[in-house]
Structures are given as C-alpha cells and as structure tokens.
Amino acid sequence: MFGQRKVKDLSPEAVRAELAERRILLVDVREPAEFAVERIHGAVNAPLSTFDPQALPEAEDRLIVFSCGSGKRSAMAVERCLKAGRHIESHLAGGLIAWKAAGLPTTSVDPDSGRVRDRV
User: Fold this and answer.
1) Residue 68 annotated in active site
2) What residues are paired with 107 via a beta bridge?
C-alpha cells in the first residue's frame, strides 16, 4: 500500500475479459527471458529491473494493468507508479500462476523453431 491508495487485485477472469474488450493494456514486468518463455497473449514487456513509471508504453484510452509470474513484482510496479505520481493501481493477482490455474491460455515461442505457439 502507498499512502491512502491500495494495490487493486484483479482476477484472471477479469483481466481476460478486459483484454478481450481492449479496455486494458497488460504490462508484464518479468524479465525478457521469462516473457519469451511464456506470456499472456496481448501483453507487452516492461521489466521491473529497468522499470521507469514515466516510460511505460502508450496505453491510448486503456487502463494499464501489470502482471508477472506470481503477483509480487506486479504489485511492486503499482507501488512504484503510485510513488512516482502515476495513477496506475491494478495488477493481475497471482500473476501467470493464477492465470494458468484458471485454465486460461498462454503464448510461448518454440526455442527450436522460433514459432509462436498457444497453450491452453
């Protein structure tokens, strides 16, 4: 928590619905190698190790929601944004672990062929 603001936990189902309607920009704060191995389709990468709240991708009219592997780093990204005066408060609670536990699909790159593959 930062000041009076609290990190907003979003469920995997809520994030999926918002992504489908293009109401959010999902920003994955894991490292590029982690992102390449497996990610949520439509997410963009902004690693926490080099994270700058002022240099986030343009979200147009969508809300930014953070994700990571377990929810820890995405909550840290929210806290950094709030501290920097950015009003970005939401993250995927439980991260990719919760997403997959909910049976939702992921995307990965086959290391042998370089082809993108979807996993259910």
Assistant:
1) yes
2) 39, 118
